[in-house]
């Protein structure tokens, strides 16, 4: 069964407080121990919009929602000591919220916007059923900061830092970027670059009939994800699905089922109940009939 908020937990599993590392910004912290795959939060957006509809949508907000929206960071305006803008708030806090009608829409979330970035995050988020769902990617101790990621985690440390500075205005000092000695950063960069390469070549190998080689690449990627502490249920599920598809190309139903079952188990730790993604995995397993 997919992870859910326990009814007994009247108090949210997170609380907000100031974080000195981010110039006094706000962060989310665990109020109790969390298990891998546990739901931390699910939240509808304050507003969704495209670039073309942004000003109109924000202008139509009621006063309370508008006040909440503009309580969030617009780092460019704050740095320039000018008035916040809707575009600035969206650029600093927006996440993709695609719909059939607006596939390029973004949304801003009052609570989730307080979750800071880490290059080794302990929370995963997904846009499902009109809400942003946040799950623990690893066991989290009470008092630990809950972090997500704002940029591609498979870039080098320097490229991640550059992207974060340009897009969000801060210097990343997370444990993925600032370990000692610096040699560890170089090893981390090499692993992440290799994982990206593996990801890119798995489908190519499977489509060219190199099914066993593709599955070996998946296995190697899973090992490296764990070494980098990037083995979130979502990342593991995706890799396992890749292996299942490689087995399907080989018409190896037994191996395909084994990998699909693992993908399903991991997906239940990063998907809300009865999500279309889980339903699709169930459909594929039922179709195998093995």
TrEMBL record:
What PROSITE patterns does the database record attribute to this sequence? SET
Q: Which domain of life is it from?
A: Eukaryota
SUPFAM superfamilies annotated for this entry? SET domain
What InterPro entries does this protein's entry cite?
Answer: SET_dom (IPR001214), SET_dom_sf (IPR046341), SET_domain_protein (IPR053185)
Report residue spans for region: Disordered. 247-276
What's one Pfam family here? SET
**Where does the SET domain lie?**
12-151
Q: Where is the composition biased (Basic and acidic residues)?
A: 250-271
Q: What is this protein called?
A: SET domain-containing protein
Task: Please report the organism this UniProt entry assigns to the protein.
Answer: Pelagomonas calceolata
């Amino acid at each position: 069964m997919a992870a859910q908020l326990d009814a007994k937990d009247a108090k949210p599993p997170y609380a907000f407080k100031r974080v000195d590392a981010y110039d006094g910004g706000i962060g989310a912290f665990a109020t109790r121990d969390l298990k891998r795959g546990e739901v931390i939060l699910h939240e509808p957006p304050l507003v969704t919009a495209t670039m073309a509809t942004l000003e109109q949508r924000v202008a139509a907000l009621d006063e309370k929602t508008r006040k909440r929206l503009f309580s969030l960071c617009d780092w460019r305006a704050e740095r320039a000591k000018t008035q916040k803008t809707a575009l600035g708030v969206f650029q600093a806090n927006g996440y993709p919220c695609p719909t059939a009608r607006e596939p390029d829409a973004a949304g801003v979330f009052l609570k989730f916007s307080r979750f800071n970035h880490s290059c080794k995050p302990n929370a995963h988020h997904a846009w499902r059923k009109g809400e942003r769902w946040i799950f623990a990617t690893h066991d989290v101790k009470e008092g630990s900061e809950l972090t997500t990621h704002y940029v591609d985690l498979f870039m080098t440390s320097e490229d991640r830092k550059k992207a974060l500075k340009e897009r969000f205005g801060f210097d990343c000092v997370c444990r993925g970027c600032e370990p000692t000695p610096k040699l560890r950063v170089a090893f981390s960069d090499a692993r992440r670059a290799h994982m990206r390469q593996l990801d890119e070549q798995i489908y190519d190998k499977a489509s060219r009939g190199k099914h066993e080689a593709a599955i070996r690449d998946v296995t190697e990627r899973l090992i490296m994800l764990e070494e980098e502490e990037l083995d979130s249920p979502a990342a593991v599920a995706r890799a396992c699905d890749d292996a299942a598809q490689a087995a399907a190309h080989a018409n190896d139903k037994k191996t395909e089922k084994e990998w699909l079952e693992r993908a399903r188990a991991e997906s239940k730790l990063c998907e809300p109940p009865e999500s279309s993604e889980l339903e699709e995995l169930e459909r594929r397993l039922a179709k195998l009939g093995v």
